[in-house]
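Example (one chain per record):
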Amino acid sequence: MSAQTRKLRLLVTGLNGVVGRALRPALETRYELSALSRSGVDGLPASRVFRADIAEIDSLGPAFDGVDVVLNLAADGGAGSPVGMNAPWESMLRNNIVGAYNVLEVARRAGVKRVILASSGATVNGYELEEPYKRLVSADPNVVLPTSWKMVDEFAEPKPVSLYGVTKLFGEDLGRYYALTTPLSVINLRISSCGPVDRAGPGRAQANWASYRDLRQLTIKCIEAPPEIKFDVFWATSDNARLFRDNAHAKAVLGYAPQDGVR
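Predicted structure:
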């Protein structure tokens, strides 16, 4: 098979997590998928499963050899953590900050073309403490919804209200640094409400839900985006009636066309 027709080689860190499990069916049929994790991954050829800790840079090199694109989902905090965004600082430091640096640096050394960093809605959760967004995320069935509101796009002021959100903002800026100073293309994907069940629950998810189908579509569009996209940030959200995390930028730049949404 020639270089022009071979499958793109995709390395995913954190494939066993909530988002990784949601994405895997689409990724493993489309790409030559390999995985890096501490515990290993079932169902892939042994030659494409790498056991390593992303906080230990010297152990990562073999997983990146020959890879075209890296999708970094490994992190602590958020939906995959037993304590959510209150994960211990020491763990978030290792996984979300040191780990993000290590992934980008080893990718640069290996000649990887693009790294996609899983960011989070936690970068702007402070908006939900303010009106009108407070009502949009309310679980009260009797809440009176606003008739209109200003969208929060990828370039709005960050408003983290957790250290987890701060670590994700660090990752976004680190990605910008690598995009500006190295050949790497870096895309930050701000993943909204995506849980172990592909359904929007009450409250915040009514505004912030990202269906598995929409998340798969957008992730593939990020992976296959033209090389001219050297750096960007995109909201991964479905077209929910209460939506305020603005996915218009992903639609305009990548042709993202959500198929789902809470009505």
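Caption: The mean pLDDT is 95.
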